[in-house]
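FW: tagging you since you asked about this chain on Friday. Here's the raw sequence from the shared folder, copied in full. Didn't touch anything.
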Amino acid sequence: SSDPYCIVKIDDEAIIRTATVWKTLSPFWGEEYELQLQPGFHSISIYVMDEDALSRDDIIGKVCITRDMLAEHPKGYSGWMSLSEVDPDEEVQGEIHLRVQVLGSQGSRRLRCSVLEARDLARKDRNGASDPFVRLRYNGKTQESTVSVVKKSCYPRWNETFEFELAEPAGEKLCVEVWDWDLVGRNDFLGKVVFSIQGLEAAGQEEGWFRLWPDKSKPTEHDLGSLQLQVKLRDETVLPSHCYQPLVQLLCQEVKSGCQDGQVHLVTLLDETTTAECRQEVAISLVKLFLGQGLVKEFLDLLFELELAKPCEPNTLFRSNSLASKSMESFLKVTGMPYLHFVLGPTISRVFEEKKYVELDPGKVEIKDVGCSGLHRVQTEAEVIEQSRQHLQSYLGELLDAIVRSAPACPPLIRAAFRQLFQRVGERFPQHQHAKFVAVTSFLCLRFFSPAVMTPKLFQLRDAHADARTSRTLLLLAKAIQLVGNMEPAAGRAKETWLSPLLPALQQGTARMRDFITRLVGTEEDKGEEEGEGRPLGPPPAVVKEGLLLVHKTRGKGPLLAAAAGKKLHFCLTGEALGFGKSPSRIGAIALGDILAAEKVEEKSFGSSHVMQVVYTAPGGQQETAYLQCKCVNELNQWLSALRKVCGNNPRVLRSYHPGVFRGDKWSCCHQRDRTGLGCDRTRHGVTLQDWSDPLDPTVEAQRLFHHLQGVTGGCGVSVSLPCPADAPLPEGLSRLFAVLGDLESCHRRAEPPEPPAPALLQLQT
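HL: got it, structure written out here
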């Protein structure tokens, strides 16, 4: 078997590492990521790796998805893709800066190519760099810069010119190849650019940065398996915020006006015309939009009212994936993740640390030897089940204790939403007062607590997936929480009779859950009395990211470097500064306005690929760079993403940087000798990971809703069914919506850039 995990690369830069699934050839990850990319990215590559504790991890295969492939699937690609073999000649990256000219007159013409520099080349040598040189081919002739091999650099500068006699007719192609020179063995291919000469004759000269392409793909000789994935590219133009104000105001007005008899509500239109595939996405956008407008409580209450107006049974309330259910689920994740971690964190950590064997199903019980040396005996099935019941009941009791005590710690906005839901259901089913408790637990337990217990990694409760034994314990614990949330544990036992040993604990848990819900949705006066109990009410401290990082020793005199170079410090990033200290208590800080860049560092600089650099302005005004070691690629990119988000509006951010370190008298990346000179690579401020803790961006959410409403109102051929005669005038709300969407479409047409002129020099991929 293998121990597979995946590395996700954007244009050959590692962004994500999934968890390892141990000892299997059919792994399931179930991990979901959302990234914001640079506008000009080219491809997404997913490498399936086999983790090895004693040697370098093996590459099983890869899947490569180009931007053009994603453009062919505007609704996203979903399916199985065959893994291809990883060919060293295919593993290229980076760009090369060229100037190509046609010189001379008819009959005596020359083709001149100036090879200036390259950046971000692939690392082919063990030292984490390459020794690049260039080779040019034209009309059967070859020239190469064997005397200009740039040692130990992925950012070489050649400034070398090559000339060829121009063939007549000039139908040949010019091929510029980059190679890694090796003293022993075969040189490694680093990529190539192929040009057509015909367009160049008219232009005379072309200069720019050109992406390096791999050699021609080689067919895979044997089956390496397949990878199932879902990928969706959202490539949209977001207009200035004032363009979306009419749409936002219209939606807010609809929410404020509430449900009115005989009126087609825009929220109803959204609910009825949203497909199951995009309902979660629409729900998230609506929740974030109304959170930013301070109307999320009113929005959810309107959804509850519209949902309860439909024919429904008290025992099936909010069990479907309607817009109301998805919106409430999204609302809990956006506003309640710190609360979730506070409640579940200790119990989840205990389950992972103890690794107890827990099994109640007689068909799955494993009998094993017990006892001390020389006194072995075989446990009976009844003994194993009883021992499992005790373990599971202990975990369940601890978790219920945490839930019951958590009412004061629950964010006030969540409590207010549940209070509205509780009252609405009680009014709708006055003869079934039990239904209002089930309505609350159907969200809190079945859609929030239970999924997080079952898969804690997907809710950021753990860094890795559980092993098989722990996973089974978590599944049984999640099932127990579901039964408590159903408020009728006997009904669950009827489906799975082997849960009967847990029934007394479930019945006691149901009574405790009922008392907890009563306190959670208590009146404002009750809520005020609870403020002195447990954790205080209110949002948690505004900490964006925190953790231990190693500070590498380098030349510099900034406050961070002077604090503890060569030691580990505790870093805490807030909305104001990057603080650091030997413990969570801060001894120093860098204001966000002084942070100029947060970027990765070349592997060869410190012997690790998980080092980032923070470029900042020291109190004396000089520019300093701190090099911070992370433990893995995920932590590295999480820190980079967090720093880029909080510093995104800093007008002093750098546009270029040095991926290496200044040692001796030159930069290790490009060998420049000017310590304060311009960097040799572009900064990547726009590449970030999206998560639930991101600050609200109403402009982006409004654009996403506009894109969806375009399809609803006919932009994508979707017909809208209205409960009114065909010849009757449109309701006022709908007519206003059509007018607002029409204005937004006009704004988008005006904002579209003109078609670029056809390039004189044609770049070819072969």
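FW: The mean pLDDT is 83.
HL: agreed, and Residues 701 and 728 are 33 Å apart (CA to CA).
FW: great, closing this out.
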